[in-house]
Amino acid sequence: MKICLVTTDEETIFIPKGINYLVEKFNNEIQVVCVPGFSSFKRKFYFFFLLYFKEFFEILIIKIYHFFKKKINCSYQKIENINSKDFLDFIKKNKFNLIISYSCPQIFNKNTLKNINELGINIANFHPGILPKYRGLFTNYYSLKNNEKNIGITFHKINSQIDSGNILSELKIPIEQSDTIYSLYKKIYLSENSLKFISECLMNYDKIKDNKYKFNEKSKYNSYPNFSEIIRYRFKKF
Question: Least C-beta-crowded within 10 Å: which of 24, 87, 194, 224?
Answer without folding.
Answer: 24
